[in-house]
Recover the amino acids of this structure.
């Protein structure tokens, strides 16, 4: 009986440690948890899919032709919502790179112990970034960039990480300035990542003018990939004069991958589970005052994978956010 009570107490203690309320060290963190924050943002997103044919050591780099978007973010407690759209004539895409349509949605919950983030992103219409590497005599400044309006890329990314030092290190101060880090501190973190990717076209994904340079890849019309992985990394907030800050976070991981290739003759190939690597790197810097804040936020997500022994693919997604905001009191404190 005594052992049962002891085990129950241990389980409750573990659950409370993982999911219970966190008491922050106020000498390290100031919380604006009950403030409403309005943030003006400018966002530039990049995405590239790299396809390599190992029989010839040639590679194709596909990317969408997109410009900057502008919008407004609203933050309250652990919830973050941000909407942006392109403004015609302002940072417009390069017309030499063809037309691309895109959609994207970023969402998440930023707690003290847990950091959940999600990204849903799609592009229709991609251009070749490296034509000079695969086409003799090609000059992009003169000839432009070959593009494929029928080529589409889709990504779903979900990650959940646990922070080991939530009393002194604040994710909310780094990512969305819902807190303010008063003294430098860092923390290890670990968690899981789920990711799904697809690349599809109406015919072979290889353009006709370089068909012979990719004897294996030119048979591929569609490919999809799913991964589940374990993350382990570290984040650190550096503080200068109590208001200026810089955050560096790197959370790499290993994963198991499964995928399907569809060839131009309609045949499907399921490839066996393979080990892969992925990662999340962020660099954020700026000013975080009592009411006003501003800064720059850069993120890079990468995934390397192999479809089979002779075809390999990797993906890179970048996110660059310029932000400036102000806090408002929602509920006046009772005297």
């Amino acid at each position: 009986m005594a052992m049962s009570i002891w085990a129950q107490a241990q389980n409750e203690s573990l659950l409370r440690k993982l999911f219970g309320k966190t008491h922050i060290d106020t000498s390290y963190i100031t919380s604006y948890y009950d403030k409403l924050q309005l943030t003006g943002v400018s966002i530039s997103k990049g995405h590239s899919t790299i396809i390599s044919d190992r029989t010839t050591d040639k590679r194709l780099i596909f990317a969408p032709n997109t410009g900057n978007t502008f919008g407004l973010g609203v933050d309250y407690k652990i919830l973050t919502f941000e909407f942006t759209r392109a403004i015609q004539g302002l940072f417009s895409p390069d017309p030499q790179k063809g037309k691309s349509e895109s959609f994207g949605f970023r969402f998440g919950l930023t707690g003290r112990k847990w950091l959940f983030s999600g990204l849903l992103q799609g592009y229709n219409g991609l251009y070749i970034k490296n034509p000079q590497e695969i086409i003799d005599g090609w000059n992009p400044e003169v000839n432009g960039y070959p593009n494929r309006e029928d080529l589409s890329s889709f990504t779903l990314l979900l990650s959940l990480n646990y922070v080991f030092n939530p009393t002194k290190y604040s994710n909310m101060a780094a990512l969305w300035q819902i807190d303010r880090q008063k003294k430098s501190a860092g923390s290890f973190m670990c968690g899981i990542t789920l990711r799904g990717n697809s690349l599809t076209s109406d015919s072979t994904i290889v353009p006709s003018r370089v068909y012979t340079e990719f004897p294996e890849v030119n048979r591929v019309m569609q490919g999809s990939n799913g991964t589940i992985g374990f993350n382990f990394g570290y984040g650190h907030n550096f503080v200068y004069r109590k208001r200026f800050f810089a955050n560096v976070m790197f959370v790499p991981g290993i994963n198991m991958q499964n995928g399907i290739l569809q060839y131009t003759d309609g045949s499907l190939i399921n490839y066996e589970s393979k080990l892969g690597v992925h990662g999340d790197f962020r660099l954020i810097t700026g000013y975080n005052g009592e009411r006003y804040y501003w800064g720059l936020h850069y993120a890079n997500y990468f995934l390397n994978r192999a479809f089979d022994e002779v075809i390999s693919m990797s993906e890179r997604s970048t996110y660059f956010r310029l932000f400036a905001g102000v806090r408002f009191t929602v509920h006046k404190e009772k005297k």
Summary: The longest helix spans residues 2-19. The two ends are 49 Å apart (CA to CA).
